[in-house]
Amino acid sequence: MALLQDRTATHQANLLPRPMKCFLNKFWEEAPMCSTLTQAEIITTYSCNCNDSWVPEILRFNDYSYVSFRPAEYIVSAGANIYMTLQAFFNCEDSNKPFPSACSKAHGGTDNTSNSNPGYELPNPVLWFMVYDPIFTWEEAYRGGYGPLNLYDGNGVTTMNIGLTYYEALNSTGYYNYGKVTHESFPQSMTDCSIHQDVVFSTCANIGLICDVSQNSTEECHSSLVMQIPRFDRTIIAKTMSMSWPVSNPILCSV
Question: Is the pTM of this model over 0.85?
Answer without folding.
Answer: no
